[in-house]
Amino acid sequence: MERQEVAYTYELERTLSMLRSGGILLAATKPSGASNVMTIGWGTVGIIWGRPIFVVMVRPSRHTYGFMEETGAFTVNVPTPELRAWTSFCGTKSGRDVDKFAALGMATSPAQKVRGVTIDACPLVYECKVVHHNDVIPPHLAPEIVSGSYPQGDFHRIYFGEILGTYASK
Ligand SMILES: Cc1cc2nc3c(=O)[nH]c(=O)nc-3n(C[C@H](O)[C@H](O)[C@H](O)COP(=O)(O)O)c2cc1C
Asked: pLDDT tens digit string along 4-29?
């Protein structure tokens, strides 16, 4: 899909709405060149340290976690509602067991500003460099969220990705 660079605020409402309903696709690539993709439903976009930041949350149990740790960069790919089958698959299958790109016939292209790939069929993508991470600290979190979202522990690591490029289909 041919895309052009746009402001990080372009169609932001669409990104937030897709996060809420069905999820969007987070991809990361190791220095070895191997990539993985998973669905995320939690995240936010805003300004921190005077920079546009995409905040994403990845549980340590995810295969993607190792990729995030090794690479220091990620892309966020916003699919169309028609690609719900992809977010469903990538949100329930692990890259430990299956090459999700191959299984879905998901074509990718090299990202332009970070090491990584973007998903061709997604009309809106963000390329992000990790500038900070921290972990959810259970005693600092409202008890109802701890019991509701973390019955098994596996507390998220929160990655703050500076948005170096946002690209939208023409
Ligand atoms: C709609 C939806 C949203 C999700 N959001 C997140 C998320 O924000 N963070 C997370 O760690 N897992 C999230 N998941 C779960 C992962 O996508 C899922 O565990 C996936 O299989 C992990 O793949 P991996 O093991 O290849 O990394 C979500 C799943 C779905 C279906």
From this structure: 999 999 999 999 999 999 999 999 99
The residues with which 119 forms a beta bridge, in sequence order, are 108
Rounded Cα distance, 120 and 77, in Å:
9
The residue to mutate among 62, 84, 133, 149, having the most atoms of ligand 1 within 8 angstroms of its beta carbon, is 62
pLDDT digit string, tens, across residues 95-120? 999 999 999 999 999 999 999 999 99
Return the percentage of the chain with pLDDT > 70, whole number. 99
Atom of ligand 1 nearest to the CA of 39: 17
CATH number at residue 36: 2.30.110.10
Q: Which amino acid is at 55?
A: V
pLDDT band at 170 (very low <50, low <70, confident <90, very high): confident
Q: Of ligand 1's atoms, which has the minimum distance to the CA of residue 42?
A: 8
φ/ψ of residue 120, rounded to 5: -55, -40
